[in-house]
Amino acid sequence: xxxxxxxxxxxxxxxxxxxxxxxxxxxxxxxxxxxxxxxxxxxxxxxxxxxxxxxxxxxxxxxxxxxxxxxxxxxxxxxxxxxxxxxxxxxxxxxxxxxxxxxxxxxxxxxxxxxxxxxxxxxxxxxxxxxxxxxxxxxxxxxxxxxxxxxxxxxxxxxxxxxxxxxxxxxxxxxxxxxxxxxxxxxxxxxxxxxxxxxxxxxxxxxxxxxxxxxxxxxxxxxxxxxxxxxxxxxxxxxxxxxxxxxxxxxxxxxxxxxxxxxxxxxxxxxxxxxxxxxxxxxxxxxxxxxxxxxxxxxxxxxxxxxxxxxxxxxxxxxxxxxxxxxxxxxxxxxxxxxx
Amino acid sequence: xxxxxxxxxxxxxxxxxxxxxxxxxxxxxxxxxxxxxxxxxxxxxxxxxxxxxxxxxxxxxxxxxxxxxxxxxxxxxxxxxxxxxxxxxxxxxxxxxxxxxxxxxxxxxxxxxxxxxxxxxxxxxxxxxxxxxxxxxxxxxxxxxxxxxxxxxxxxxxxxxxxxxxxxxxxxxxxxxxxxxxxxxxxxxxxxxxxxxxxxxxxxxxxxxxxxxxxxxxxxxxxxxxxxxxxxxxxxxxxxxxxxxxxxxxxxxxxxxxxxxxxxxxxxxxxxxxxxxxxxxxxxxxxxxxxxxxx
Lengths: 340, 295
Fold this sequence. Notes:
The complex is a heterodimer of chains A (340) and B (295).
Chain A lengths: L3 H21 L4 H14 L1 H26 L7 H18 L5 H30 L3 H19 L37 H16 L1 H11 L1 H6 L4 H28 L10 H11 L4 H21 L6 H32 L1
Chain B lengths: L1 H29 L7 H19 L2 H25 L4 H24 L22 H19 L1 H11 L1 H6 L4 H27 L11 H11 L4 H23 L6 H19 L19
């Protein structure tokens, strides 16, 4: 999909965009970069923070990639992540006596199922009525945010009914922490495992081949008697499952409870992660770590009063536009060379 | 009675920006371009309008600035979507992120994080309880203009051909890329006006991400309105009812959770999309880049 030439230019481009954005928004360049560096990889805690922040970005981006590669533009990662976490918290509420590893596994399973079910609404609307997935998944994000706001004040609110959040999970259900002083939890292994599995599946299995064919050339897929709609619907469901899993991992890995700001926009931040990762599982690991580091490092930038999340959105927007423009420019140049 | 007037007035006030943006988006989609970046263009318009009105004190200068900035984003989109034939959803997503990030960062760096409302002068209002404003009339003119140019002019014929069969448009002596670019400029300008309306007529300030999905609701309304400017605008007024009811519900203490009202416009848009499906009214080449055949 992406040539080596583009791949090598991406890191340089991302650094250039970082510098450019800091300059445009009037932040002191040297100090900002030093602060970002300190916050992201300066010491052990920085590295841990980066890995923890990368985890939801990578999982959601992998989910989005799966759907996008089949031609289903799932923009609903945020909604699917949130409904996944809600499904996980509901599982805990319904089975409060469950404990330990089994409870952890059950919560994650239902989180994935919750995300898949929410994506299923868009998949169903697409399959039955041809409703554009871009629009339906975007609209569903807003529905999910309202749903979260409702459940933390209603059915899932903590027992004392005073704060808008759900009950906190007991430590025995939460993921193992590798270090008592940081958030680094065992759940981050999911992102690496899933990206390797998806890479192998997409590259070396008939199912993966069918998915890529449906996405890149629907006519050829139909000629090969592949039921394109069925492949697309399944890709969207699995996409939702991965986004839901990301929500579950955040729930049992980091916060342990639900609240309004449970997701600081992971589902939106993950879209450029998937795109700049070249819609490739391994590329997504790389871009997920980079943007995870930015999120981790930007904690320190707050000192300057620059809206930290906003700044990352801006860098991502420029990154996506520059990436696709560069990609197309290189493609045209190659064509010119081969034509001349 | 007062309440009926209240809801209808809210519908007009909240529906006007949606209808204005929808007129532009409908024309653009008929030429075959799906502008996912509409949300970001509206947000940029709202921010530019607010900033310029804040520094000049003139809401009309703000409206103009909103139109200019949003049109610049439309030109940037065109460079990628038309000249470079890059995927429209990807570019639109990039525009949205860029606008969300840039307006958010600039707003915080210029006006602080205190959350204190920075009020600016709004466009004049008249009509008592109805709280009408001149932009509503401009909106009617824009929707009429969009309908007329699409349905009754030679340009409209070419525009529709570009959405159905760009080759036919070329055969008739039109350049699909130029026609789509013209439609893009119109969509950008209307999105900017709609955005500036949010900060300078509907409210008197700016907030981060203040469009809150309105651009996407407009895209859904264009589908509901069968890609016709008039239909799309009426669809917007219909969805604006849901926003109006939302405001009303906050004033009263209803036994229904308020989050349901928050989600209502989006749920309504989804229901409407399900109701109309894709159907045969969709432009055949909607979302498909046109490449000039070389040689």
